[in-house]
């Protein structure tokens, strides 16, 4: 027996085990870090990371300070990449009183982020749904005969008081109309189009839509509306005469925002880049009583990007790692689009873009949008091999590319880009006031971190 050889093998085994346990301990610490960052960014003091009370800027400053503390270098002369964005600011009090009863913001009624300010006391006048049966083409509205008669009758009765009235359409009643299915669909579509239309064909100044299923909204850029428009549950409008008193202020306009960007140089190929991105912005507030704190969407993804920055500062890859925390995602991928159109790096040097969005839970594995793109196959092939060998997560799922997060602008430049999100586990609803940190699961984050780190070390 060769005792020297045996002792050497034992030493190497113990050294490998020590290194493995040390790395696992670091990843476990980063799991706690993910929870901390997610909770910090979704705290009430961040005001929903939107325009009201400069919540988005507060979040950007927080992220910049984290990068400084982690010793991540700025990408360029500054951590901030400034640009202009069009958005809303509905800060202050929102009050809706119906027949003397105060309604609950978001739960009893919903205000679109781009609706103009409303301040007044209005009579609610229910309009016949049938008058919405029209088509639009070549800048001309064409009404059916029945719709035209309904409109003329309604106009004759109420037009003198339109400015002091809230015109009400009960969408729940469309299904009960004695009309064919195509006509019902046309009426529904025309009413839904008012969400994005800047004007309505009737010249109404204030429109109220009744629906039992209150819709959600994003802050996507839309034409500035010339009429107020919001939703309410029909159960609150049971009286023959309904009076609504509503007050809120919404300021639309351009403002400065910023992506927050840093870099850790690679050890062997610093001119090749692995780019991590996640959006830190969220919806902000619909008045002071309705705050969208956005823990799941997307304080969680921001936390993952910062956790990777923390890890790769201590264990740099052979490639440079760039970290982009983007603003403007909720308003139409504006931050990531600005980055690819005004890149702070040479885009052709990017080996892969990893976009992290919606990463609470994860007990069932990881899902990748754009996962079937051939440009992303080399990365995902290695990930599949790593996961098959080490059994890190239960499943890795792959979907086609759609413009649903910040990976998408990169794909339009033919850059390999993946949108990673979690499957299963504890996660709150998105675009909802209940999207808070205490409703997020973090027990799978250690495994998800490990999966990406092992893959990148072999990529």
Please give a structural write-up.
- The structure is a single chain.
- This protein is an alpha/beta fold and 459 residues long.
- The protein has two domains: 23-85 and 256-457, Aminopeptidase (3-Layer(aba) Sandwich); 95-248, Glucose Oxidase, domain 1 (3-Layer(bba) Sandwich), CATH 3.50.30.
- Helices cover 31% and strands 25% of the residues.
- The chain has nine helices and 21 strands.
- The strands form four sheets. Strands 1, 2, 13, 14, 17, 18, 19, 20 and 21 form a nine-stranded mixed β-sheet that branches. An eight-stranded mixed β-sheet has the order 4-3-12-6-9-10-11-5, with no helix packed on it.
- β19, α7 (377-390) and β20 form a beta-alpha-beta unit.
- α2 runs parallel beside α5 (295-314) and α7 (377-390) crosses α9 (445-457).
In short:
The chain contains nine helices and 21 strands. It is of the alpha/beta class and 459 residues long.
How many structural domains can be distinguished in the coordinates? 2
Class per helix and strand makeup: alpha/beta
CATH class of the largest domain: Alpha Beta
Shape: elongated
Label the CATH architecture of the largest domain: 3-Layer(aba) Sandwich
Residue ranges: pLDDT <50 for 5 or more in a row? 10-19
Strand content: 25-35%
Order of helices and strands: HHEEEEEEEEHEHEEEEEEEHEHEEHEHEH
What oligomeric state is this? single chain
Count of helical segments? 9
Largest sheet: 9 strands, mixed
State Rg: 26 Å
Count of strand segments: 21
How much helical structure, as a percent, in the residues? Answer: 25-40%
CATH topology of the largest domain: Aminopeptidase
Kindly report how far apart the N and C termini lie.
Answer: 40 Å
């Amino acid at each position: 027996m060769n005792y020297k050889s045996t002792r050497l093998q034992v030493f190497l085994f113990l050294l490998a085990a020590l290194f493995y346990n040390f790395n696992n301990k670091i990843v476990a610490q980063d799991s706690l870090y993910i929870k901390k960052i997610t909770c910090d960014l979704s705290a009430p003091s961040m005001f929903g990371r939107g325009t009201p009370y400069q919540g988005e800027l507060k979040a950007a400053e927080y992220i910049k300070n984290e990068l400084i503390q982690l010793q991540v270098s700025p990408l360029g002369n500054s951590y901030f990449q400034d640009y202009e964005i069009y958005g809303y600011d509905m800060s202050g009090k929102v009050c809706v009183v119906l027949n003397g009863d105060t309604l609950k913001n978001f739960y009893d009624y919903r205000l679109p982020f781009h609706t103009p300010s409303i301040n007044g006391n209005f009579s609610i006048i229910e309009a016949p749904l049938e008058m919405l049966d029209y088509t639009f083409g070549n800048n001309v509205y064409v009404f059916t005969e029945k719709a035209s008669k309904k409109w003329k009758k309604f106009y004759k009765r109420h037009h003198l008081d339109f400015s002091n009235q809230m015109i009400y359409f009960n969408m729940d009643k469309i299904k009960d109309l004695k009309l064919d299915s195509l006509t019902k669909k046309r009426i529904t579509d025309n009413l839904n189009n008012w969400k994005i239309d800047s004007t309505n064909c009737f010249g109404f100044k204030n429109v109220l839509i009744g629906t039992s299923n209150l819709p959600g909204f994003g802050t996507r850029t839309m034409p500035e509306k010339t009429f107020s428009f919001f939703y309410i549950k029909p159960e609150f409008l049971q009286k023959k005469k309904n009076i609504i008193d509503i007050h809120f202020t919404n300021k639309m306009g351009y403002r400065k925002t910023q992506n927050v960007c840093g870099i850790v140089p690679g050890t062997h190929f610093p001119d090749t880049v692995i780019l991590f991105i996640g959006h830190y912005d969220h919806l902000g507030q619909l008045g002071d009583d309705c705050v969208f704190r956005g823990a799941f969407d997307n304080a969680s993804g921001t936390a993952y990007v910062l956790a990777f920055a923390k890890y790769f500062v201590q264990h740099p890859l052979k490639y440079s790692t760039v970290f982009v925390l983007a603003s403007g995602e909720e308003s139409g991928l504006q931050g990531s689009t600005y980055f690819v159109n005004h890149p702070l790096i040479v885009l052709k040097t990017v080996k892969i873009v990893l976009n992290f969005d919606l990463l609470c839970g994860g007990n069932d594995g990881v899902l990748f949008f754009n996962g079937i793109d051939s440009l992303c196959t080399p990365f995902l092939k290695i990930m599949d091999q790593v996961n098959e060998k080490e059994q890190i997560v239960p499943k890795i799922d792959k979907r086609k590319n759609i413009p649903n997060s910040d990976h998408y602008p990169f794909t339009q430049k033919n850059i390999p880009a993946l949108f990673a999100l979690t499957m299963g586990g504890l996660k709150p609803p998105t675009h909802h006031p209940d999207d808070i940190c205490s409703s997020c699961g973090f027990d799978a984050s250690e495994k998800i971190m490990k999966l990406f780190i092992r893959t990148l070390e072999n990529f």
